[in-house]
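Sorry to interrupt, but I need a hand with the structure work. Please put the record directly below this note.
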Amino acid sequence: MQQRPLRTLVFGLNYPPETTGISPYTGAMAGGLARRGREVRAITAHPHYPDWKITSGYGQWSRSEQIDGVHVTRLRHYVPSQPSPLPRALSEVTFGIRQIFVRWGRPAAIVAVSPALLSSALVRLRSRLTHRSTPFVVWVQDLYGIGISETGQGGGLAARVIQKVEGWLLRSASTVVVIHDRFAERVHDDFAVPRERIAVVRNWTHLPPLPPVEVPAVRAARGWADDEVVVVHTGNMGVKQGLHHVVDAGRLAHDRGTHVRFVLVGNGSQRDELQQRADAQPTTTQFLPPLGDRDFTDILQAADILLVNELPGVAEMAVPSKLTSYFAAGRPVLAATDSTGITAQEVRAADAGLVVSAGDPSALLDGVSALMADRAAADRLGQNGKRYRETVLDETFAIDRFDSLLADLIATAAEKHPA
């Protein structure tokens, strides 16, 4: 009699069809595990990010669907229209409450994706009560405590509470999976998680090989002149991106008469404020809404430079997911970020671009000029990023690593707790 495949239960706030942030990674990992013979169930929310509004057609109290071989259960939770720290925390808690009261069945392994930290902590509480012998993996995409400290959001008490919750969650896990070696160091040093219980599984580019694009046609359709240098930033427009400095760099470009256009693609909690800032005085900054897959890849390849911009002081909290897409596009990267942070380290490791100081519009504009002073060298940087993506940020390798990790945890649990 053929043995039924072991079930892996994945808890995550974000899941496809959301196209930005951590959703593509959670979806691809779950689908990849299913293709490798696992029975995978994902318990997630209705799509709402980065617009902070539930996508049309979704929003039922609960909903089930199949995506890429994964049984997906969606739960309605509170989605704030303005995701400031307190409403966002409430959103995570309501999602966590929904998760702990849904039927789990008998999974062989549980994976909780953080963000969302608070809902993951609630899931862990229940698992310790009802699934104590089941391996529990926390997959860390962002470190909350560091994020609060680096962005200045939340008071001292809030930061201490979050760090306590985060530390408890990580120490209680069977294994903590992180997306970068620097995260592994911080999880060990800050939260005293033993190194043997920390695994590094790098994020990958979730874009397929990009089809050729007619660059002049794409640029013309967007109103970009042939003699303009187009600098594109994609993804979330939140606090940690510090995009008001980009709007100010566009203002500086206008004042200097420099033919540099900054294009901000996407949505987020700061978009309205950024638009108001851009409307207040002349700037070369352009805003575009979130784009479909083909338009998105066309924009990346038609840009002269792809931009990562971070708030001054943001250094350790996250590896921007946009970097993997940028590397796939083969365009040079300009990173306005802390010179000692994870983002700067990643750009330098790939030899894919230039790092300039965060929070300095003049330095940002000077970085654009430096890259465009030697177009051949800029093209080489772009190709370096593409090679780095192909050799280091490989999806198959990452999912195989995760699959192997789960297999080892399940086997160890079976030895300790035989049926």
Remarks:
- The longest strand covers residues 39-45.
- The longest helix spans residues 395-416.
- The two ends are 18 Å apart (CA to CA).
